[in-house]
Amino acid sequence: MAATAILLSELKNINNSYFIGFRSLTHEADKQGEYATPQEKTFSIGFTNLNESLHELEDHDLDALVADLRSGLPPQEPSTHDGIITLVDDQTSTLAVSREFMPADTCTRLTAQSLRQVKTSFTSDIRDKTGISEEPQSKADKVKLALEKLKEAKVRKLIIKVVMSDNSSKTLMVDERQTVREVLDKLFEKTHCDCSINWSLCETNPELQIERSFEDHENLVERLSAWTRHSENKIYFLLRPQKYVMFTEPQLFYLWKKSKANLCGINNQAKELLIKENFGGSTQIVPDLEGMLYLKEDGKKVWKPRYFVLRASGIYYVPKGKTKSSSDLACFVHFDKVNIYMTSDYKQKYRAPTNFCFILKHPHIQMESPYIKFLCCEEEHTLLLWVISIRIAKYGTILYKNYQAAVKKASTFQSFPSPAYKGKNKNVKIQDFIC
């Protein structure tokens, strides 16, 4: 009974402190240029061997524990807190529905009855995936259920709305363990579209007029947690032909100095050799990209040309009066704390020389900030070179593993494309830069 009391006490502590939802994040850096980190609650069960402790319980004690685990928090009506609707169910751990990811009219219609229906659906889905029966028969089953519930109680979940290319939408429940690749697989099943390697989950930020495709290995819940509470950002499910162009057309980035005629003559065997040379070894090889770009001055709508050089660690520039030698280069930005974003209509918004711009910023920055780096290219081809090459420098061989997984998925799944999900290829057209 003492072990049962300890377990129930720990469970009560979890339930009392447990809150799932978006974390309040700051979007600005402090005066030293360091970024604020989200505050998270951590939990400890307090046993060196929880499985052994559960097996030591008597059957009636274990029944009491399982009953308490299954009941979770006391039944109550759905409550709201800072834009989060918290759902409590007698079969699953607490779930949170973010208002930002549900249509406005849907949020207003979430009555107690409709919430119970949503929770029932999620409960059934969790049972199907975990293989846990509603009424465990043996002690081993009860221990397994207790372990699963304790583990599940620590997992954050979000309900998100993903917008399709035809402006329809799909609603999914995702948890913090899932990668973007796993969410894409869910969408393949829901939309019955083809499993092309070019399908992407993209985030848009209307305030900054930017877009970024999530990388397949990234954790989606973690990325969405960087959004501000009342964000108007959206998630799109779209075809992006430039997603893995560094592997389908590697010559564009590793032989970029050659003429278009020479690039057109590259056969598949030569492409495979380029991939092996640059991604197959233990050392990451970054395209030796360099050239003139326009840099936006801080706080001004003024753009000045500077000569930039790409390195594995970041982007460097040539100071005035200096040469392009490595000893003279000055660091512009490191890649470890920033992501790259495509922009829209910056010629009008910031008086950029062209609309072929990109920015580099920390993901927690969601609005205007002096810590955003703005760069502008002369032409679309140059924009493609820099954006893809920066992704290669930042992620390296992880991108190649993502590509291999996407190719495997596309080859093993036989689906029929639906006209509603053909995608809007509004970004860079790869065929324009080949033959």
Automatic annotation (TrEMBL):
Domain Ras-associating: 156-242
Subcellular compartments: Cell membrane; Cytoplasm, Cytoskeleton
Keywords per UniProt: Cell membrane, Cytoplasm, Cytoskeleton, Membrane
Alphabetical GO biological process terms: signal transduction
Gene3D superfamilies: Phosphatidylinositol 3-kinase Catalytic Subunit, Chain A, domain 1, Pleckstrin-homology domain (PH domain)/Phosphotyrosine-binding domain (PTB)
Limits of the PH domain: 286-395
Membrane topology qualifier: Peripheral membrane protein
GO cellular component: cytoskeleton; cytosol; plasma membrane
Major location category of this protein: membrane
Record bears the keyword Transcription regulation: no
PANTHER family hit by this protein: AMYLOID BETA A4 PRECURSOR PROTEIN-BINDING FAMILY B MEMBER 1-INTERACTING PROTEIN, GROWTH FACTOR RECEPTOR-BOUND PROTEIN
Protein family per UniProt: Belongs to the MRL family.
Protein name per UniProt: Amyloid beta A4 precursor protein-binding family B member 1-interacting protein
